[in-house]
Amino acid sequence: MNEITAEATVDIDASPSEVWRSLTDPARLKQYYLGAEVETDWQVGSPITFKGAWDGKHYEDKGEILAFEPERKLAYSHLSPMSG
To answer: Strands 37-39 and 47-54, how do they pair?
Structure first.
């Protein structure tokens, strides 16, 4: 199995607390994550799921919380069955 790792860095003109809320608040995530419902308890080792519809097909992507340091660091894995 091929493993793909992606990392991105972006400078954002907002306070750390506003950025953090945008990354962890389910209502905000839904706004920019193609309407997906995101569910997790944000504990390292816990599952994270992304449920929604894309191009008329329902999907449920899954992952695991890898790092969670409020207003500092967030990392999770992400597996999408739709990507094969």
So the answer is: antiparallel
